[in-house]
Write a structure and sequence with these properties.
The complex is a heterodimer of chains A (115) and B (116). Chain A is 0% helix and 53% strand. Chain A is mostly beta strands. In chain A, the strands form two sheets. In chain A, strands 2, 4, 5, 6, 9, 10 and 11 form a seven-stranded mixed beta sheet that branches. A four-stranded antiparallel beta sheet of chain A has the order 1-3-8-7, with no helix packed on it. With 116 residues, chain B is mostly beta strands. Chain B is 0% helix and 53% strand.
């Protein structure tokens, strides 16, 4: 199993450009999450999904949109990138049942720079 | 709402010395608690978790943590540091089975440096 994979690994954008980050998991997890990691800030939840076709806002959703058209994929979109969105983005997934839903599996991250 | 405080953004120890990384939490319901480790340029990996069973939890790579409700703490320890332990460590809290919020709230992280 590949686990959680993220595409691309690195990206440089100019202010105002758009892009989509792709997260894929092969563990049949119901729940998926997008986080951003900034120095000294830990991980902050951007958006999450509890199942195919459903998404919800996390702690820092502004400037981002998401879609979960297929159970195994969770897309994070930036419609008009800003320098403040320079960060490392992590996707995670978890089971939906019992205590297992609290254990999240993380992808390797996407390092995004907006100039 | 839950929150996590990790005391010390950077901890430095000598190889073979005790590792102690501190984590305090706040939660309105009985929490579930986690420690994750992040090696350079990698994603986060679960080190150990407390989900209301034994209060002393053992994880991978010789790490353990003790849940102390009276102190609202979940400190991470390892008796003898190894060079390979150098990484960033994150404490995280969830509301546990008593709440509907299964999402994790992370601390800001502690960077562990191990000196030869």
């Amino acid at each position: 199993n590949a686990g959680v994979t993220q595409t691309p690994k690195f990206r440089v954008l100019k202010t105002g450009q758009s892009m989509t980050l792709l997260c894929a998991q092969d563990m049949n997890h119901e729940y998926m999450y997008w986080y951003r990691q900034d120095p000294g800030m830990g991980l902050r939840l951007i958006h999450y999904s509890v199942g195919e076709g459903t998404t919800a806002k996390g702690e820092v959703p502004d400037g981002y949109n998401v879609s979960r058209l297929k159970k195994q994929n969770f897309l994070l979109g930036l419609e008009s990138a800003a320098p403040s969105q320079t960060s490392v983005y992590f996707c995670a997934s978890s089971y939906s049942g019992g205590r297992a839903r609290y254990e999240q599996y993380f992808g390797p991250g996407t390092r995004l720079t907006v100039t | 709402a839950q929150s996590v405080t990790q005391l010390g953004s950077h901890v430095s120890v000598s190889e073979g010395a005790l590792v102690l990384l501190r984590c305090n939490y706040s939660s309105s319901v009985p929490p579930y608690l986690f420690w994750y480790v992040q090696y350079p340029n990698q994603g986060l990996q679960l080190l150990l978790k407390y989900t209301s069973a034994a209060t002393l939890v053992k994880g991978i790579n010789g790490f353990e943590a003790e849940f102390k409700k009276s102190e609202t703490s979940f400190h991470l320890t390892k008796p003898s540091a190894h060079m390979s332990d150098a990484a960033e460590y994150f404490c995280a809290v969830s509301e546990g089975s008593g709440g509907s919020n299964y999402k994790l709230t992370f601390g800001k992280g502690t960077l562990l440096t191990v000196n030869p």
